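task queued by scheduler; priority normal; single chain, no ligands, no partner chains; default sampling; output format set to structure tokens
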Amino acid sequence: MGTHVIKMPDIGEGIAEVELSQWHVKVGDLVVEDQVLADVMTDKAMVDIPSPVHGKVIALGGQPGEVMAVGSVLISIEVEGAGNLKESAAPVVDKEPVAPKVEAVVVESKPAAAAPRPAPVCQGPMVAREADERPLASPAVRKHALDLGIQLRLVRGSGPAGRVLHEDLEAYLAQGQSNASAPVAAAYALRNDEEQIQVIGMRRKIAQRMQDATQRAAHFSYVEEIDVTAIEELRAHLNEKHGASRGKLTLLPFLVRALVVALRDFPQMNARYDDEAQVITRLGAVHVGVATQSDVGLMVPVVRHAEARSLWDSATEISRLANAARNGKASRDELSGSTITLTSLGALGGIVSTPVLNLPEVAIVGVNKIVERPMVVKGQVVIRKMMNLSSSFDHRVVDGMDAALFIQAIRGLLEQPATLFVE
């Protein structure tokens, strides 16, 4: 028997260190080739580390949340044969880190050498857990379970380390299980339990970026009400006529088109500000970041060269990127390089929001939900579809008057949708 030492790999882009986000194995576990051992977090993406060998885990080299240098010892595995451990190898701490209670994460990209893993197979929908045991699941899965009335502790997880996935909830429902058949806690019961969740991995990166943005940029927000009745009628007409052959259109590609057209007159919004060098870079290319909620938090995949895309081209790319982000498949290139960001909470969009800038950008356009309201049009009270745009700007670069005029230009384009296509 020998020892195979796996070191923190060089993930590229000049990265010298990464954060160990989550272990998927523990000391004593038997692992097989290509099995995911750990998730690590770079400045841009979550990456999973697969095993290159079969064997038994004998030591872990760090704890979740620890920043590790590229080339440092990540894990040691006992293997058949001589292994690769040499006398000069760095010492490995023979311990099993205490696993904090953390939200499970979905990786964003994989090292090129990793072979694709088979999809997890659910081994039955129901599993017994202690009443106070918290199963591993992402925030999105927890919310889905809450909406369905399912107690997560009764659902068997088919993901790594027993993580409960969306498909596990579906399997649970398919077996006829429901919250109605589960024990119901007594009403008004006293609770004194606490839970500490370590902020690591993607959640830590999101927290750092949001804090950095609010501390460095001089945020100000501007809210405008828009009548989207006409654009919604156009969207419904195009979907009825071309939806079967070209795909259904949401409102987002129309908003992207409105951004592209409005930016022709307001190029100062399509810019990046280097506050250290005191340089503003205005860009001709419109790379629209589309804020997307995933299981691990907010991601911003980028629709590149939106200025050269048709409605359906934009729609297809938005859908592809959103699915990649939600499934943890978005690459680093797909998550970087935006020049202006569009953010929407969809049906949960509320009335008003105050989006946080995606630095070093200087503008972010936020979309609130569409509601039907009585409005006065030419002296008559009529029902119109109304929507607010809640947008934020960097006041160090963008003047308030320019921001207002920019949003008013978008409003005019959406309320008179034919102007979106007039060159």
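post-processing summary
- The CA atoms of residues 93 and 115 lie 29 Å apart.
- The longest strand covers residues 363-377.
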